[in-house]
Amino acid sequence: MDKLVYRAVLFDNYGDLLNEKQRKIMEYTVYEDMSLSEIGEAEGISRQAASVLLKRGDERMQEFEGSFHMVEMKENIGEALKRLKGMKLDEGVKKELELIEKEINR
Prior knowledge:
The protein is mainly alpha-helical. Helices cover 79% and strands 0% of the residues. It starts with a helix and ends with a helix.
């Protein structure tokens, strides 16, 4: 998975666990695709300070994933669902699999 996509996936799962400053910097990076200079300007901090906050946020989210494995579990469940969908199943089971998939991707 591409680094920026992986950061976004981690942020979707663990962003609420970051402190307010880290979360704000991640939002700028993930959702608004802002550069460090743009983030610094928006927040009234230096480019270096924005870089440090971004790095610490990335490190914290990696720590959370190392402890909770939510992203890994969702990927594994998604792959299992794809395999199940490829099998001959009755319509009731297919509908249940679709509900599970929607819940996981929420």
